[in-house]
Amino acid sequence: MQSGANTGEAPVSMWKVAFASFIGTAIEFYDFYIYGTAAALVLGGVFFPEFASATGTLAAFATFAVAFFARPLGGVVFGHYGDRLGRKSMLIFSLFLMGVATFAIGLLPGYATLGIAAPILLVILRFMQGFGLGGEWGGAVLLATEHATEGKRGLYSSFPQMGPAAGFLLSSGLFLVLTLSLTEAQFAAWGWRIPFLFSIFLVAIGLYVRVSISETPVFKRALETQTRARVPFFDMIRTYPKVLLLSSGGMALTYVLFYTITTFSLSYGTTELGLSNSTLLYCVMISVLVMGLTVPAAATLSDRIGRRRTCLAGASLAMVWAFPMFWLINSAEPVFITLAFTGGMVAFAVLYGPMGAFLPELYGTRLRYSGASVSYNLGGVAGGALAPIIAASLLAVTGATWSVSLYILGMAVLSFGCVFLLTETYLTDISGIRAEEKELLAEDDQPAKGTA
């Protein structure tokens, strides 16, 4: 499959573009997830030894949350330059930034060596991780979407959407191998650093692939017509305020589902149900594998029946599964827990898969990087940063998982409503200037005409 046939340039292999968008998100999510695993296992003792064990782990999780709040800022900054300078350069820089931060965490001495400087540097590096990831997703889906041929934007935009599954499986698998092959003392002393240091090889592969990919033809046409926005973020806020809020609300459920399963449920299973970490990790990895296979299927379906309809189906599945999921988890049987996680991850995939094309299609070329990135990452703050905390708090107050199910149901209703109020986009021509943006350009030109 080739793209660029109508741009007067040598056609680009869509499979190469798809791989370039996939490899970057897979690596960046690998970097993102290994921190979460390390925070749960060892970072509290390494960087916060002055605290009690539970408090130190909580402090480590606080540094984990820092990245979620850095992501929207990264989306704004990378979106600005991505809409001004191009998608390719920002994709290369975001991957480089996160790779450097992750590798540096692997080398960072602990509190015993650097004192208070160690946790401060850890927070800075974690912020850099989140900042880089905030710019990564928008650029990756635009690379695929703006290269894709008509009628296949959903399919090709699903490749970066499979990055989280690949990154999670790689990070979890590597940590599982390390914990099984090393003693607790070896893992705490140096073993946890291996996944961070190993990421530099993955980053080198990703950078090599991305450097060889050309700028998207849609953005090149925007350059030729000189329709770039001067300050994309503010123009996006002025032009698409409703779309930004609704698309962020639509995305929030995906984070709630993913982190309730991969973070809260793991903690609940070990502390309340008495199951081992390895058993629960196997259950999660199976469900994530199914999710990774469901994402392209849902995205391809959205090329046939529409993004909006497919996303509404995903939110509906989450509503239906909210209570049965915890009924199955509370059985404490690994088979039923795997089924519970898998059902939640399928609902996640049906909503998340089409979003790779849906969010970019909601915005015009001039503001697309900013719009897609910010809406995606604002959904992450509402869902990813808060979901495990809210779920744990509800469980502590009520003493029962029905409250967590009710929370998931409420978020599913919210996302359903947000998606329902968005317009359908799968047949939209994404290369032209939108009517809303033409109005903004006319408004900006008006003072200049009045002073002429």
CATH architecture label of the largest domain: Up-down Bundle
Largest sheet, spatial ordering of strands: 1-2
Succession of helices and strands: EEHHHHHHHHHHHHHHHHHHH
Largest sheet: 2 strands, antiparallel
CATH superfamily of the largest domain: MFS general substrate transporter like domains
- Count of individual helical segments: 19
Q: Which descriptor suits the 3D outline? A: globular
Structural class comes to mainly alpha
**What oligomeric arrangement do these chains adopt?**
single chain
N- and C-termini, Cα separation? 50 Å
Rg over alpha carbons: 22 Å
Text of the CATH class of the largest domain: Mainly Alpha
Within the CATH hierarchy, at the fold level, what is the topology of the largest domain?
Growth Hormone, Chain: A
Q: Poorly predicted ranges (pLDDT <50, ≥5 residues)?
A: 4-10, 448-452
Strand content: under 5%
Helix content: over 70%
Number of separate domains: 2
Structure write-up:
The chain is an all-alpha fold and 452 residues long. The chain folds into 2 domains: 203 residues, MFS general substrate transporter like domains (Growth Hormone, Chain: A, Up-down Bundle); 202 residues, MFS general substrate transporter like domains (Growth Hormone, Chain: A, Up-down Bundle), CATH 1.20.1250. 82% of the residues lie in helices and 1% in strands. It contains 19 helices and 2 strands. Strands 1-2 form a two-stranded antiparallel sheet. The protein is globular. The C terminus is likely disordered.
